[in-house]
TrEMBL record:
Domain Cytochrome b/b6 C-terminal region profile: 203-374
GO MF term (any one): oxidoreductase activity
Binding site for heme b b562: 75, 175
Protein name stated in the entry: Cytochrome b
Residues annotated as binding a ubiquinone: 194
Cofactor comment text: Binds 2 heme groups non-covalently.
The keyword Glycoprotein is assigned to this record: no
Keyword terms, alphabetized: Electron transport, Heme, Iron, Membrane, Metal-binding, Mitochondrion, Mitochondrion inner membrane, Respiratory chain, Transmembrane, Transmembrane helix, Transport, Ubiquinone
Gene name of this polypeptide: CYTB
Annotated Gene Ontology cellular component terms: mitochondrial inner membrane; respiratory chain complex III
TM segment ranges: 20-48, 69-88, 108-126, 133-151, 171-193, 222-243, 281-300, 312-330, 350-369
A Pfam family annotated for this UniProt entry: Cytochrom_B_C
Essential cofactor(s): heme; heme b
Membrane topology, as annotated: Multi-pass membrane protein
């Protein structure tokens, strides 16, 4: 009986009629999460988490398993789609200031983003190609920057004195478990969202023109999911290796270092920030703050502020942040040489400067308008 009531409450949630296509990203992310779990389950049936067999097991999946190439390609490209939609979802939340009306839901959403980044990194290591091995070596070595305990932390993550068999086993176990943890966080995210309901382009929840979530928005979500599936199928069928580094088609070789080590595209903005700081510890701190800064928005923001659609200053700062994000992503993909290193330093400084400016922009805009009205 309680389950029926919960479903009725979910389908009958009062939803503003004015919400646009940007609100589809949340439902698409839920579908992609379930898709990644199911496809990952099928892949795990044929994957072997042993350094001597991991790469060959991936070749076996691609060549010998019926439909294996498609499932593996959809899983790999599905991860890229997931992060593309999570950036769209977070961008929409920043633009329409969802962190003001739904602070707890925002906090859980940022946590989902962090755990998703960890899960994607672990999955990137599993094919045991050249870029997988050296990416794991570089990223895990960042823990050595932690004072006093850094070296011990690195060896604990590795399960030895270098990236090897224990590392791969641990990463495979965590990569399999963490998506279920993300699903739990997603459920909590939805529960907090339903406390006040969705916002709308005006940036508030007390809109008088509301309709039941079903059938109006369930059909819109289904259409959005179908469009994404069509796009994903086109990528898998015609450009399956569009976002795959060619180095990862070679088996991991600890004796040969790739000329240019870089993570997947959705980590490149943080990678560029890491490289822009000369100090290793400073780079690790900046890397963490580049994502953890999102937690500050609900805490530091002033409730009485002008919604972004009515504030030119807030809109300008938001699109500056989007531009800086794209620039950092491009810089992260560039070689570690001049002039890219010099360019990344001021861009990183602008990235961190934009956060406090965005937090206060709505309040400043409201004060300016109030002053002129008086």
């Amino acid at each position: 009986m309680r389950k029926i009531q919960a479903v009725d409450q979910m389908l009958g949630l009062p939803t503003p009629v004015s919400i646009s296509i940007w609100w589809n990203a949340g439902s698409i992310l839920g579908f992609l999460l379930m898709f990644q779990i199911v496809s990952g389950l099928f892949l795990s049936m044929h994957y072997c988490s042993d350094v001597s067999a991991a790469f060959n097991s991936m070749v076996h999946i691609m060549r010998d398993v019926d439909g294996g190439w498609m499932i593996r390609s959809m899983h790999a490209n599905g991860a890229s789609m997931f992060f593309l939609m999570i950036y769209v979802h977070m961008g929409r939340g920043l633009y329409y200031q969802s962190y003001l009306t739904q602070p707890r839901s925002w906090m859980v959403g940022v946590s989902i983003f962090l755990v998703s980044m960890a899960t994607a990194f672990l999955g990137y290591v599993l094919p045991w190609g050249q870029m997988s091995f050296w990416g794991a070596t570089v990223i895990t070595n960042l823990l050595s920057a932690v004072p006093y305990f850094g070296v011990d932390m690195v060896q604990w993550v590795w399960g030895g004195f270098s990236v090897g068999g224990p590392t791969l086993n641990r990463f495979f176990s965590l990569h399999f478990i963490l998506p279920f943890f993300i699903a739990g966080l997603a459920a909590l995210h939805i529960i907090f969202l339903h406390e006040k309901g969705s916002t709308n382009p005006l940036g508030e929840t007390n809109h008088i023109s509301k309709v039941s979530f079903h059938p109006y928005f369930t059909w819109k979500d289904i259409v959005g999911i179908l469009v994404l599936l069509i796009f994903l199928c086109l990528v898998v069928m015609f450009f399956p290796s569009l976002l795959t580094d060619p180095e990862n088609y070679s088996i991991a070789n600890p004796m040969v270092t790739p000329t240019h080590i870089q993570p997947e595209w959705y980590f490149l903005f943080a990678y560029a920030i890491l490289r822009s700081i000369p100090s290793k510890l400073g780079g690790v701190i900046a890397l963490g703050l580049s994502v953890l800064a999102l937690y500050v928005f609900p805490v530091a923001s002033i409730k009485r502020s002008l919604p972004t659609p009515f504030s030119f200053l807030s809109q300008f700062l938001f699109w500056c942040l989007v531009s800086v994000f794209f620039m950092l992503t491009w810089l992260g993909s560039c070689p570690i040489e001049e002039p890219y290193l010099s360019i990344s330093k001021p861009v990183t400084a602008i990235y961190f400067l934009l956060f406090p400016l965005m937090i206060s922009s709505g309040w400043v805009s409201l004060k300016i308008i109030t002053h002129y009205i008086k």
